[in-house]
Amino acid sequence: MSRPRSQAEYLARLVPPSVAGLHRRALLAGAAGAGALLGTGLLAGCGTDSGADAKTVSLGSNQSDPKPKDVIAKVMDGFKTSSGVEVAINTVDHNTFQENINNYLQGKPDDVFMWFAGYRMRFFAAKGLTGDVSDVWGKLSGYSDAFKKASTGDDGKQYFVPSSYYPWAVFYRKSVWQQHGYQVPQTLDELTTLAGQMKKDGLVPIAFADKDGWPAMGTFDILNLRINGYQFHVDLMAGKEAWTSDKVKTVFDTWAGLLPIHQPDALGRTWQEAAQSVQQKKSGMYLLGLFVAQQFGDDEQDDLDFFTFPEIDSTVGAKALDAPIDGYMMARKPKSPANARKLLEWVGSKDAADITVKNDPSTLVANTGADTSGYTALQRKAAELVGSATEIAQFLDRDTRPDFASTVIIPAFQQFIKDPKDIGGLLTSIENQKKSIFTS
Fold first, then answer.
1. Quick count: other Cβ atoms within 10 Å of Cβ 206?
2. Hey, how many other C-beta atoms are within 10 angstroms of the C-beta on 264?
3. CA atoms within 13 Å, Cβ hemisphere of 95
């Protein structure tokens, strides 16, 4: 696939076949399993029983870390200033929010809540647990048809308003690399050689964390994309390829060989703690999303840099990457429907995007009308990286069924990290469970 010639072409590639090719029946088949995978606890919505004319609306936010939480507060303050409507923000720990989303939506959810594009948006839209916001899209500007497609359910209606997106790459501190004379690796062999030198210099080569289950998915994604290519990756996510294939085994064999240069005891560490080891100059690099910048102070942003994960197979290259889209959805029956739609129109606006640009150096805004002159050098480089990618994936747990990702992949990957010896048995277990889920 050629390099995208325009932003519209790039955005079109943000919608992977594993999302675009789904049908309502396939989504509904997994509905029963979602309750089990997403936990039993309820996230309590904080909205009141006010009517459409009340000057309040509730927002369920998964932005629990200090920096993004502050940005969301500023965006919502902007909404209050422009509309006179107060936003009651119900902030819940990011992973708790994700794990309990099914029960949350079936209980008493907030009027509007934060979520993701891709399979997970379509999954809950198909279950009838989210509201149709097609009328809101009629009032939005600054979005290409590709972003609209990424926000559209199987029935052709829109259920999602995009706000931001970000690439995954290997991040590091420029001052550390300059101190030791490190060079950006172009191949996997160069990466492992660099890691060996970092060990000699007293650094942990690659920061690593998987306490929350999802970060290791990014490692698998990039290795699979580099070894087997984009099409095989999205077909594997869609259940069309076997996890027991030699191609997948090669990915895990490669991963097992890289584990010794990763930070040990990853299952007891959050991504924030791993990021802080880079921030504190204890680790040399870290594969994560652009949001890693949240763990660096304002005076450290210029010291943060990244490179795309290096080439493994020259016939595959190194131009594919993960670049997920985040945004907002509406509850099926919001307590304040009119204000919920006003809020969605606001978060999708140029004005809201401008507030984000001014306050958050860890993401890229989705609205093309936004003033991005305030982007940091890191953000500008991230936008260029995404624009130069030949293939874009949405991240493992957004490109596949949510029940498969949560009930099968997370425990399997964590077992592998704990004990990478029995790869064959692990992949057989994943494949057997995949067949059960995808054919249910």
1. 25
2. 12
3. 11
Dihedrals phi, psi of 165, to nearest 5 degrees? -150, 165
Q: Is 181 exposed, middle or buried (0-12, 13-18, 19+ CB in 10 A)?
A: exposed
In a 13 Å sphere around the CA of 310, the CA atoms on its Cβ side amount to: 13
Q: Are strands 283-289 and 204-207 parallel, antiparallel or unpaired?
A: parallel
Residue 181 three-state SS: coil
C-alpha–C-alpha distance, residues 395 and 19, integer Å: 11
Residue 169: burial class (beta carbons within 10 Å; 0-12, 13-18, 19+): buried
Dump strand ranges (E) for 128-277: 161-165, 168-173, 204-207
Closest by CA position to 111, among listed 41, 40, 38, 50: 50
Furthest C-alpha separation in the chain: 65
Q: What is the distance between the alpha carbons of residues 17 and 238, in angstroms, rounded to a whole number?
A: 8
Residues of the chain with pLDDT under 50: 1-42, 46-53
Say what the pLDDT of residue 28 is: 35
Q: What is the C-alpha separation between 64 and 35, in angstroms, rounded?
A: 23
pLDDT of residue 43: 54
Spell out the alpha helix ranges (H) of 13-51: 17-20, 24-29, 31-37
